[in-house]
# Entry
Amino acid sequence: MDHFTKQYINGNWKLGSSEKNIENINPYTGQKIVTIQSANKKDLDEAFQAAKVAQPKWADMTVAEKQGHFQKLVDVMMEEKDGIIDWLIKESGSTHLKATIEFDSALGVVKESMSFPTRMAGSILPSIFPNKENRVYRIPKGVIGVIGPWNFPFHLTMRSVAPALATGNSVVIKPASDTPVTSGLIFGMLFEKAGFPKGLVNVVVGKGSEIGDEFVIHPIPKLISFTGSTEVGRRIGENAGKNLKDVALELGGNNVMIVLKDANIERAAKAAVFGKFLHQGQICMALNRIIVDQEIHDDFVNEFTKLVSQLKYGNPSDQSTFVGPVINKEQIERIQKDLNESIQQGAELIYGGKVEGCLMQPTVLKNVTNDMPIAQNEIFGPVAAIIKAENEKEAVEFANDSQYGLSGSIFTEDRHHGVELAMKIETGMIHVNDQSVNDEAHVPFGGEKDSGIGRFNGEWAMEKFTTVKWIGVQSGYREYPIF
# Structure
C-alpha cells in the first residue's frame, strides 16, 4: 500500500516532485483510498531518460530471456489476482464479475504477447542490382508512452504495455487520475516482482494540467498509446503530429445493436442487457443505442425491461451485484443532463433513473429518436436507449448516423445476411448474434471515424509497436555508370 503513494521511476519508488496531490477516491463509498504526491516535468523527464537507457539492453536480450520474464509475469499476476481484483473494485467501482473479466483479459494479452519475440520476422527481398540482396528487419521503436484509462484500467493499460515490451520497447505509463493504481502503479509492483530490468517500466502519476501535454511532446517517446475520450485523443493526436510522433488511439464509441424482425427476442434481450450494463455501461464498446425493427419492437422492449428489472445494483464488492457506481459525480451529472433533455424531447422513461451519490439505477428509455442527446452522445453510463426502426434500411442509416465507429452488434436468425449487413455498418468491429463488448488478444481491436487510429492485439499490435529497417547487402563490387 505504501508503494501506491509514490512514483515508480527507474526501478525505485519515490515521492513525486510536484506540490500538487492526487486524491484516490472510492466511487461507491466516496472515501479516500490514498493520497499521491504528483509527478512534475522533472519526474517525467527522469522516467523517459531511464526508459531510454534500459531499452537497448532489453532489446538485445535473447528470445528465451524475454519470454522467461513474461512467464514470471504470468506467475506473479496469478499470485496477485485477488489483490488486483480488490483494487479494481474499490478504485474503479468494478463489480466482482467485471473485475474478474478484466483480469482474465489482461492475462490473455500477456500470454499472447509472450509469443511476439519469436514472431518478429523480417524478410529478404531480391534487388534490381546484380549481386545484392535487400534485408528487411523488424525492430522496436524505442520508448513507448502509455496513457491509461479509468474504465477498464488494468486490461487496457496492459494491452499497450505487454505488446510494447514483448517487441523490445521500454515504457513510461501515465495512469488516469481516477485510477492511478490500477492503470499505473500496480504495474510497477508487478513488473518489479517479476524481475524485469530497472527502467524498463516506469509510472508517473500526475495531473494532466501539469504533465499531460509534456508527456506527448517530450522528445524521447516514439509512439503515444492512448485509450480514452475522443476530445482528449484529438489533442494528443495534434500534439503528436506536430512532433512527428506515431500514435495508437482507441477513443469513444456510440455502438449499436440492430435487432432484425427475425431475431430470437429472448436471446437478443439477454445479450443487450449484458452489452449495455456491464461496468455500468462505462466501456468504449458498450451498447449506446439498441435499434429494433418495428415488427418486434414492443415484444423486445417488454423482455428487455423485465431482464433489466432483475439486475442487482449497489455495492460492487457484493459478488451478486451487476451494476455498481459510476466513476464520479461529474459523470453522473453529464448522464442526467442528456437523459433529462431526451425525455423533454419525447423519450419515455419506462424503468429506473434513480440516483444516489455515484450510484445510478439501471435505466431504460423507449421512443428515443436518433437525434436526441442520449442517442447522439456517448452515454458511458447505465442508460439504455431503444430506437424503433421502420425497416432494415432505416436501422442501418441510424447506425451510421454517428461520428463514431468502434463496435456493434446485429441479431438475426440468418447469419449470412447478418454478415452482409455488418459490412454496411461503418465500424471497426461488429458481432453477429452477440453483443458489442468483445476483446480477444489475438484479434484486431480498433475503430473507424472518431473512434480512433490503429489496431491493438496480435500481429496488429506487433506492427504498431515496431518499425522496419532496410539493409541492402552488396556481395561483390557494384559498377557505377559515372566511372
User: Anything to note?
Assistant: Residues 255-432 form a domain with the Aldehyde Dehydrogenase; Chain A, domain 2 fold (CATH 3.40.309.10).
